[in-house]
Amino acid sequence: MDTHFPTDAAVLRSEIAVAAARMIAQDGADYASAKRRAAEQILGHSRMRKARSDILPDNAQIEEEVRIYHALFSGDSQPARLLHLRKMAVRLMQDLAQFNPHLTGAVLNGSAGEHSDLYLQLFTDNPKDVALFLINKNVNFEVSEAPRSRHGGGHDPVETLSFLWNDEGVHLAIYGPDDLRGSNKSKSERANLAALQALIAESQDHEA
Q1: Within 10 Å of residue 67's Cβ, how many Cβ atoms?
Q2: Tens of pLDDT along 123-155?
Q3: Are 13 and 57 in contact (CB under 8 A)?
Q4: Are the beta carbons of 65 and 111 closer than 8 angstroms?
Q5: The whole model's pTM is what?
Q6: How far is CA 201 from the centre of its chain?
Q7: Where would you tag: which of 83, 87, 116, 204 has the fewest CB atoms within 10 A of its CB?
């Protein structure tokens, strides 16, 4: 029987993923910055600049390490925190129903912890309606833009409105209706209100 040993690249990938997961869980860092900081921490700045892309873990590997971290160090509190955030997402999505909200990120995939924010994708013909809705609710928000993923449709950057809601960070990424119909995202990466409510009910049934 063949015995397979990890390569140097695989070992480094694992070390970077563990370090990045710790930064995400402890500090609330986003995946991209956590991956970069972890790589620089382990490789050093000069080696990081010359490093091959195959030694950098993908988000799925980091996400799995976040789950392991929570199981080891916050197993008593993380499930309650996750449920709290999911229920908050339900309330927020009900308020934003006219914009066809979908939950994404750590709150959906179950890896959310103490520092996790809520990430929603909205799909509307008029992005300005979202800003007007928040203004009418007396919500102070910041506007930012990010490039679309290489799997998404269109070329225009995605506008995101960020704000604090009941002491939790919220980020609303605004897309057009065609982005939802043409997206390659699976159900595991994005959930509408009904899917989120079903997920909450299923998790509570498992705990009962």
Answers
A1: 18
A2: 999 999 999 999 999 999 999 987 775 444 556
A3: yes
A4: no
A5: 0.80
A6: 21
A7: 204
Is it the case that residue 174 has pLDDT exceeding 60?
yes
| Strands (DSSP E) found in the chain | 102-104, 118-123, 142-146, 158-165, 168-175
User: Quick one: 145 exposed, middle or buried, by C-beta within 10 A (0-12, 13-18, 19+)?
Assistant: exposed
| DSSP H or E stretch at residue 37 | helix 31-43
CB 127, CB 143: distance < 8 Å = no
DSSP-assigned letters across all residues of 62-88: HHHHHHHHHHHHSTTTHHHHHHHHHHH
- Which of 69-73, 91-95, 204-208 reaches the highest mean pLDDT? 91-95
Half-sphere exposure in the Cβ direction for 105 (13 Å, CA)? 26
Give the SS3 label for residue 173. Answer: strand
107: tokens are: 């709150």
Rounded to whole angstroms, the Cα distance separating 122 from 174 reads 5
pLDDT at 73 > cutoff 50: yes
